[in-house]
Amino acid sequence: MKDSSILFPGAPADDGTDPAAPQTIEHPAPRTRRQAGRVRDWIARHPALAAFPFVLSAALLLWEALVRWQEYPVFILPGPRTVLRKALAMAVDGSLLRHAQATVIEIGAGLLIGLTLAFLLGYWLGRSRTLDRILSPYLVASQTIPVVAIAPLLVIWFGSGLLSKVLVTTIMVFFPTLVSTVVGIRNVDPDLRELMRSLRASRRQLFLKLELPGALPVIFSGLKLSVILAVVGAIVGEFVGADQGLGFLINLGRGVLDTPMIFVAVLMIVLLAQGMYWSVTLLESYLLRWKQLGLKDGD
User: Fold this and answer.
1) Which CATH class, in words, describes the domain spanning 75-298?
2) How do residues 33-61 score in pLDDT, each as one tens digit?
3) Could you tell me the pTM of the whole model?
């Protein structure tokens, strides 16, 4: 077929299509619809994070309304703006960072010691029924003593420095992780353990390939509780005797009736505990992603 543009100058070229046939127009999915779908998927996966701005805004509004309605003085119940100004002032002079850093060091050292001891002892208790029957009564009896009662003794014996706070934190985090480790090790399928032994797996291979992956879901349950209790333990130790830390700020604010300082310290404790909890949750989702993939494949 000749080119129609040559026969009829100015006419469009003939591309071989029938002009009478209806033309199909492709409509790509609107970008806004795709973005809305992604937002809905993210909200479905993270409902708590999605609701957080609304919950925080509602709490601040109710707090401010209560202060204005009852006309509370600052030393009874300061408003959100007063607390914010106090937090900014403490952040500028460096006192907030210094005391928060002291508490974080106590929590980190206590977690390192407590979790290490709990993992090691929990593994052997989970593997040995005899050792479990010997030590379990003493471990349970040790948990019947309130940590608040032990903390003053630790301050007397080890002073009001870092060591006494670390020991209190260690005691707080030890038992939950110990119990979760024992339960996790005992939940490992004995048939799989015998199978690996029949394949001449070493003790190291048995631990890394079977026992640890099988126990991790239960261990993380105790670890989430332990990181929260670590914050509580550090603050309890600072209440008893300390010259720095967020617990010391609460004691100082109580002594001089500086209620905004108490609120700032309490809010920092909450943020610290939440940050540690979500860090453990992210670590759990990363290390146990194989389990989530297995569930999807099973579905």
Assistant:
1) mainly alpha
2) 666 667 677 677 767 777 778 888 888 89
3) 0.78
